[in-house]
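Run log, item B.
One chain of 313 residues. Sequence copied directly from the ordering sheet:
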Amino acid sequence: MKPAGSKAKAAATGDTALVVGAHGRHVVIETPSGERMLAHARGKKSACVVGDRVQWQPAGDEAVVEALVPRRNLLMRQDEWRSKSFAANLDQLLVVLSGEPMFSESQLTRALIATEDAGISATLLLNKIDLPTAALARERLLPYKAMGFTVLETALTTQPEASIALLTPALAGRTTLVLGASGMGKSTLINLMLPQAQAQVGEISQALNAGRHTTTTTTWYWLDAADRTNGGALLDSPGFQEFGLMHITPQRLPELMPDLRKHLGECRFYNCTHLHEPGCGVRSAVERGEITPSRYRLYEGLWAELSQGQQKG
């Protein structure tokens, strides 16, 4: 990590850099040459997130972010109190799941809805397939396969070489955010694919927080530091327990759930909520077994939650 000193002073207006770490008003930016430096945004609060491209200028021993380059996408969650941005300009989301502990279908559904809303593709990774609980987890993921999601299977701890062989082509050349609840194997995956991950995150944490705190935001890792154009990158997100969707209106929910979306044109009423109206194509699909009862219950719960939030707002 270098200060925005001699080489950085050659930066001209309009130079762009990549945000690879963020905490409060400070970010770590990386120039096209690979030089990393601490930067701060003009104003009291930074609007930058990891994955952003920014225009910058040197400012003493640091750099200053002058402007944000327009984003392709932004993955975020929002509850009643605050919104949390994970990362920007993503190619895909990789959701790590397991049967021990058993993954939460509610958390998975919420993450996939937010990803769909942001226009980002998602891949599911079922980890710990060497354990007996994998069979039930695999069964619970069948509806997601039917919706068109790719489901990869690994045993990251006991079959590391096979896991690397499976994941390498799935991650190559893409900017991938890895998301997973505690115990699913997210950290194992990061450490397996990126042996130097701890050193990289330590460097960024030290730059951002002077050793006083740990970063609580997403961290960027190059899969191949020698090929930053085509090698791809992994982004490690902080663990999460709840995934708020308050930035989405209840009316948009069916469009963001592929199994429900498939039947939207079958309803008698154009403004059907799919909760109680006669002639509802979605509820008919549930009765025929084309939408699982668990998915429909999740839809009902989310509709109630977002409607309540809308009324409070």
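Observations after the first pass:
- The longest helix spans residues 293-312.
- DSSP finds nine helices and 13 strands in the chain.
Flagged for discussion on Thursday.
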